[in-house]
Amino acid sequence: MSKRVKEILSWYASETPGTQANLARLMNHGRLAGTGKMVILPVDQGFEHGPARSFAKNAPGYDPRYHFELAIDAGCNAYAAPLGFLEVGAAEFAGDIPLILKLNNSASLAKEKDPCPAVTSSVRDALRLGCAAIGFTIYPGSTQQNTMFEQLRELSEEARACGLAVVVWSYPRGSSLSKDGETAIDVVSYAAQIAAQLGAHIIKVKPPTEHLEQADAKAVYLAEKIPVATLAQRIRHVVQSSFNGRRIVIFSGGAAKGTEAVLEEVRGLADGGAFGSIVGRNAFQRPKAEAIDLLHKIMDTFRDAA
Ligand code: FBP
Fold it and tell me: Is there a catalytic annotation at residue 204?
């Protein structure tokens, strides 16, 4: 076990040996093993955005086994997906890569201003499929946020009791936030703090913009001159907001974009002390060889910053 992984595990000392071992599994797999950095492949977009929007660009992606192979061949730390996708490959690829079962999902067929995902699988499913962790999405800012917080409390308690790790997708949205507000630095930092307070071991947020959404918070950012002009500064602030760096915080990739744009963003993440990336569309919507090449470049950027 590397010194860095041991140091990170020490931040989770209140957890059972099972949960700590599963966190170690996530950190010790793939090309970034032992560095304390991680790159995860998430493929829940079929559920969240629909099959054509997700897989038409690179049709092999309609096959759930393609994503297991992509994550394994690229040397990702883990692969995250909803129940259906994991069911198809969990036996064939058992032991080849740590799995994260997404326990709740939303479908964009219903356009809700204040969404609340459905709980679509269970901790028992995660154990049966050999997963290292459960994944759960919260939408801080939705009028239904308390329902999600309470669902997470229950599922997280159960997962920890079974020795699983808990990964939280914390995506602000809802009728009280503007569209820009969903990625505003004050709001994203707040969302990361909420996930940490709810007991997330790994927190996943979107890269924040310079925008300040909430008047009360804005006054403090300006008075205290909190530096948020560059992406690296904003990432540092999100990491600080996640228990001063004592929680693993990773950032999502977003809609498909050009290779240089992805890498430029990743350089900002790495400079700001992010623990890694969770890259979905920018990976599986590219032809496989290109996706692996990009994922390797992303991993190298994090490794160089470690
Ligand atoms: P991407 O890299 O494709 O953005 O994936 C990250 C992710 O968190 C997925 O797990 C999820 O499906 C998607 O983003 C949701 O994004 P949104 O809710 O904004 O459509």
Answer: yes
> How much of the chain exceeds pLDDT 90, in percent?
98
Name the active-site residue from 204, 225, 257, 288. 204
DSSP per-residue codes, the chain: --HHHHHHHHTTTTS-HHHHHHHHHHHTSSTTTTTT-EEEEE--HHHHT-HHHHHGGGGGGGSHHHHHHHHHHHT-SEEEE-HHHHHHHTTTTTTTS-EEEE-EE--TTS--SS--PEE---HHHHHHTT-SEEEEEE-BTBTTHHHHHHHHHHHHHHHHHTT-EEEEEE---STTS-TGGGGBHHHHHHHHHHHHHTT-SEEEEPPPBS----HHHHHHHHHTT---SSHHHHHHHHHHHTTTTTSEEEEE--S---HHHHHHHHHHHHHTT--EEE-SHHHHTS-HHHHHHHHHHHHHHHHHH-
Q: What pLDDT does 254 receive?
A: 86
For the stretch 12-38, pLDDT in tens is 999 999 999 999 999 999 999 999 999
Distance 241 CA to ligand 1 centre (A): 22
Give yes or no for residue 302 CB within 6 A of ligand 1. Answer: no
166-188: per-residue pLDDT in tens? 999 999 999 999 999 999 999 99
> Of ligand 1's atoms, which has the minimum distance to the CA of residue 253?
2
